[in-house]
Amino acid sequence: MGKKNKDLRISRRNFIREGAAIGVGSTALVGLATQEVNAAQRQTKWDRAADVVIVGAGASGLPAAIMAREHGASVIVIDENHDIGGHAMLSGGRIPLGGGTSLQKKYGITDSADQVYLDHTSHRNAEFRYNDRELARAWADENAATFEFLIENGVKFVDQTPTIVNGGTVPRLFVAQVFSSDLNETINGRPGSGVVRPLEASARAKGVEFLLRHKMTAIIRETPSSGTVLGITAKFENRSVNIQAKKGVIIATGGHTSNVEFRRMFDPRLTEEYQTTGEPWTRQTADGEMLAMAIGASLWGTASQNTEADLAITKTRHIGCRYGYQNLKWDPKSPVFKLAGASGLTVRSFADLILVNQMGLRFWNEMDDSHNFLNACLGTNGNLGREKKANGGGPIWAIFDSDGAKREGWDPNPPNVDTNGWFFTADTIAELAGKIKNQYQLQPIPAAALENTVAKYNSYIDLGKDPDFGKPTLMFKIQKPPFHAAWSTPILHDTLTGLKINRKCQVIDMRGQVIPGLYCAGESAGGFALHGLPRVIVFGRIAGREAALAKV
Question: How far apart (Å, rounded) are the C-alpha atoms in residues 198 and 44?
């Protein structure tokens, strides 16, 4: 996300004009009278057709496809990527679904849909208190059936006693087994592969058709603001493909975190320096949300994006690389590793380094993992508004010496670090400051400022306390060359808001009415903020069933 992708920029005028200008063959709908629009729709040339068209082949799209087929619908799934799985492929494969699943019963655990609902609507839980209760009830009622659905479709779980997560009262967490040892199949060897690969195999066996490298560019409705959704337009190899959906279109595109302008609607501080976990494997571009909004869809539960009780933005644990999410370390043997650039240096203790902002100044207690730390990163941090970039906090750099690297057990060389703007080494602190050049570093770090910061910190080691920020562990000076600077800027994760849906996953417009033929599930759907796979799988399954059962 270096320079802003022109496709991701939004202005109010362009958003309405470009989003609503849905191509139907060579005819645009914008500006036509209703009669002319209907005539144009009747003349649409459909290149492909299915009962249900699903956009996105991840943890929502795959269950949706299987359920639609099981209810007798023909299904086409498109995905922009060259392979299936989406962000879920790189996930931890954690499935905390309850309500009385077969594996819960195996371990003597009593649970119910009612208890699942109560646990996920508690006002004491800051992550859940904003949730739409109708959606929470639908999700809770479908927990157990969805877990059995996963098993029936080939997902295998690690056989161990479940644990309690998400502030619940009952053990529900089971973890999927890694699909295989082949990184060409698992991409990075993550347990999420044990969810999406079996679902893919089941979907294909049941007759689902996949169209990869297809990017949705329009949702075709009878008119831009009324009537039934008829299908989509996708781009494939620089040509447009119109795909008819006889029963419904399901948006399962994965959320908006990669879209700088869209995410800044919820938090203006999230400027372009904040990278997104899951990249460069998949991107969350907000395409589904934007195109649905262009035909009248509403957003829902937007407060959930910034409750500070979730994983919307996280402290990085893998430094010196561009994509340093705390639970995702890129394997050099991964087929997409060259795009990731480096695997990163995994921090065991932040006592071995200091964190400075783009002005070379410490700004918070490095040991803190709370939202106080994240807010400090996103705060002023020396960003004086140069080049009109005053909202974000700017780059955060970890500064450490050779002794720190030795204590951590690091080899500060490629492929562990990315020396193309994300990691620097020098023999002096002043020289190190001058070397730090990155596309998000608005100006060079002043050498004197960084020297003073390190000298002051070293003096605090002698003092035995940190009078500036109260760092509780002050044991090691930064004094032995070579010295290092590693990219340590927080990274974005969950999309926790999106399109408004009802319990059938039908998309709702800004007047509170159902948009006929349009469904949504996963991170593109709003109203139920819950980290990870449970919400996206459950609602994907609901969307596929409801779309297949729709009367036309």
Answer: 36
Q: Is 16 helix (H, G, I), strand (E, B) or coil?
A: helix
Looking at the predicted structure, is the pLDDT value of residue 20 above 70? Answer: no
d(CA 536, CA 88): 10
Q: Is 399 helix (H, G, I), strand (E, B) or coil?
A: strand
Q: What is the CA radius of gyration of the chain?
A: 25
pLDDT over 70, % of the chain: 90
- Report the alpha-carbon distance of residue 416 to residue 345 in Å, rounded: 6
Instruction: Provide the 8-state DSSP code for 7.
Output: G
Which residues are paired to 401 by β-bridges? 483
Which domains are delineated in the chain?
Answer: 9-90+179-309+495-549 (3.50.50.60), 313-492 (3.90.700.10)
Burial of residue 110 (number of CB atoms within 10 Å: 0-12, 13-18, 19+): exposed
Q: What's the CA gap between 134 and 23, in Å, rounded?
A: 35
Hey, what are 173's tokens?
Answer: 């967490």
Cis peptide preceding 63, ω within 30 of 0: no
Residue positions counted in the chain: 552
Neighbours of 388 (CB within 10 A): 6
At 125, list the tokens: 């839980």
First to last CA, the chain: 42
- Could you count the other beta carbons within 10 Å of the beta carbon of residue 238? 5
The answer to whether 424 touches 399, Cβ cutoff 8 Å, is no
Pinpoint the alpha helices (H) of 328-414: 337-340, 371-377, 402-408
Which residue has tokens 């005539």?
A: 39
Classified as helix, coil or strand, 11 is coil
159 dihedral zone (left: phi>0; alpha: psi -120 to 50; beta): beta
Query: Cβ distance 85 to 56 under 8 Å?
Result: no
Q: What confidence score (pLDDT) does residue 25 get?
A: 36
**Angle, CA of 313, 255 and 280, to the nearest 5°:** 70
Please state the φ and ψ torsions of residue 53, each to the nearest 5 degrees.
-115, 125
Task: Give the tens place of pLDDT for each residue, 458-492.
Answer: 999 999 999 999 999 889 999 999 999 999 999 99
Task: Tell me the H-state helices in 153-286.
Answer: 183-186, 193-205, 260-263
Q: Which residues pair with 485 in a beta bridge?
A: 399, 424
Sign of CA dihedral 277, 282, 283, 286: negative
Other C-beta atoms within 10 Å of 265: how many?
16
Rounded distance between C-alpha atoms, residue 249 and residue 174, angstroms: 31
Can you tell me the distance from the alpha carbon of 389 to that of 383, in angstroms, rounded to the nearest whole number? 8
Q: What is the pLDDT of residues 344-378, one digit of tens each?
A: 999 999 999 999 999 999 999 999 999 999 999 99
pLDDT digit string, tens, across residues 207-224: 999 999 999 999 999 999
Encoded tokens for 67: 């359920």
Contact assessment for residue 289 and residue 299, using Cβ atoms and an 8 Å cutoff: yes
Tens of pLDDT, residues 252-274: 999 999 999 999 999 999 999 99
Q: What is the DSSP string of 535-546?
A: HHHHHHHHHHHH
Q: Is the pLDDT at 380 greater than 80, yes or no? A: no
Task: Give how far the C-alpha of residue 185 lies from the chain's centroid of Cα atoms, to the nearest Å.
Answer: 21
